[in-house]
Amino acid sequence: MDVRTNRDRLVTQVLAGEVWPPLADRHAYRVDPEGAPFFLPGMGGVTLGVHCGDPATGYAADHVEPGLSVRHRDAGANYALQFLTCVGNSVTVTSGPAAGANGFVIGQHAYVLVELEPEAMDGVTTGDKVRVLAVGQGLALADHPRVILKNCSPSLLAAMPGGTAADGRLSVHVAAVVPAAAMGAGVGMVSEYANTDLMGAYAGLPADLSLGLEGLRIGDVVALSDQDHRFGRGRAEGWCTIGVISTGHCMAFGHGPGPSSIMVGPSEAFDLVLDERANLANLAGALR
Amino acid sequence: MPAGRRQLAVNLLGVVEHATSGASPYAIGRDGRPYVPAGDGGLVLGVDLGEGVWERAADHVAPGACLVHPDPAARLALTGLSCLGNEAILRSGAAAGARGVVVGKRGEAGRVIVRFPPEVLATMAPGDEVSVRAEGQGHPPIGDVRVMNLAAELLEGLATRSAGTLRVPVRCEIASALMGNGIGRPAVQWCLDLQLDPLNAGLHGAARLALGDLVALDDVDARFNIGYRRGWSTVGVVVHGGSPLPGHGPGIVAVLTGPAAALELEVDAEAHRGLAGALGA
């Protein structure tokens, strides 16, 4: 993105985490929007075969977390890992047969979600350790004072198309514009933790649930209408939040593919460009 | 639950909550300003049903005493099984034996909100024990309308059966896009905050929104978590006041949910009385 930033003033912190196993309880089942019980994979662990650019929906899964789901054992260290890690940060596997494999952060979802090359993923299992180079909180745009960046690594910002437009607005390429009615679980939580599930994207379920969002892909850069995520995730008419879809298909009602928030500003500060290539898959070369 | 199966009543122990805080006193409001949340849980004096949700300089304030349980799972069961209108009996302190009524509950870790007469509340303290006679979950549906979180006798005071529908007086009818924290959570254990504040409330007929009011939400289904479903309607009772937090605001507990055609809403933005009227507050 063609913008002036303060990236040379940011610090990088080395953080550590481990691939956290999926968790179940003794009752096993959750309930879908029609009241049917399900027991399906999705959250936690090493999720294979779902990468940036792939469909976000259409899996027999709940809360699909692509790639590695990473957290820290210590509660305070984990909050730091979740809050400080930014979309696009570089990650290295540090234990197990895949040690040395490099990847990048797709987003947060109560875990840091990490994309690796498919062949490296095969060698990772739960409990394996990773190292995260966390940089990005504090990143600011010199020429767009009303636009706030969060959870956005300098390398992601640099790799994104767009930038300062001729009329002074910030040009951002997005794959979709999401209506405010889609905002689901995650509203009211802090913007640096987990993400905002989008309702209306339950592929394969009845039409009265649909808000037309079944075509979202993992890694899509999207615009969230009437959302102000500067100080937590809330609705504000005339504001716009830019997010990156970091999680996918949900069966739980009120949940769905989730964007991690990376930019917030008044709608008039943005020049949104609909671009189906606005996906982390097309920026991955700059992030690994 | 099919008609013809008897509902169970259970006695549950609740303990009056002490207000809690993290290591920092500040929360951050939607305007970016830090504030110290007052009235968010615990034991609150002087606030009652019928009071406007933005009358106090407070955060998520509820009328009366919030009950919890020291065991996290028992706390969730207390929250899930207690229903609006259930009777609660104070078991400790100077006013032991006094009776209160469940008028709300709140989500995540779980809290039950009990209204006591002011002279009883004045004698109470955090740690007091209260027994809740919990009854109401398992109410048979009325036509296509699911009933939850509501004592059967209170339902009669809030809604009227008419041919094929339920007639329900409400303060206002709100678009689903104003749902806030609580979306995607089970309506038996969580309240749903509405993203209403004094600045936007007038646009949605909610300027006079008060504790205990009934509110209808368009395109919301609360049967299996709370979420968006076109053509559905959910009616909830306002259980706590407004909040400066982004994504938060006055909270409702869902009590009726069904196809919109099965609920006949009577919107009265001015004179609606809701739970305050039904309980004689």
Walk me through what this model shows:
The complex is a heterodimer of chains A (288) and B (281). Chain A is mainly β. Chain A has one domain: 3-layer Sandwich (tm1086 (SG structure) fold), CATH 2.102.30. Helices cover 8% and strands 31% of the residues of chain A. In chain A, the strands form 4 sheets. Chain A has a 6-stranded antiparallel beta barrel with strand order 1-5-8-7-6-9. In chain A, a hairpin with a 3-residue loop joins strand 7 (102-108) and strand 8 (112-116). Chain A is globular and about 55 Å long. The two termini of chain A are 18 Å apart. The mean pLDDT of chain A is 97. In chain B, the strands form 4 sheets. Chain B has a 6-stranded antiparallel beta barrel. In chain B, strands 10, 13, 14, 15, 16 and 17 form a 6-stranded mixed β-sheet that branches. The radius of gyration of chain B is 18 Å and the shape is globular. Chain B has 281 residues and is mainly beta. The two termini of chain B are 32 Å apart. Chain B folds into 2 domains: 9-135, Thrombin, subunit H (Beta Barrel), CATH 2.40.10; 146-278, tm1086 (SG structure) domain (tm1086 (SG structure) fold), CATH 2.102.30.10. Classes of the chains: A mainly beta (288), B mainly beta (281). Chain A binds chain B through residues 31-35, 179-189, 197, 199-200, 208-209, 211, 226, 228-237, 252-255, and chain B through 28-32, 175-185, 193, 195, 200, 219, 221, 223-232, 245-248.
Number of domains of chain B: 2
CATH superfamily of the largest domain in chain B: tm1086 (SG structure) domain
SSE pattern of chain B: EEEEEHEEEHEEHEEEEEEEEH
% residues in beta strands of chain A: 25-35%
CATH architecture of the largest domain in chain B: 3-layer Sandwich
**CATH evolutionary superfamily of chain A:** tm1086 (SG structure) domain
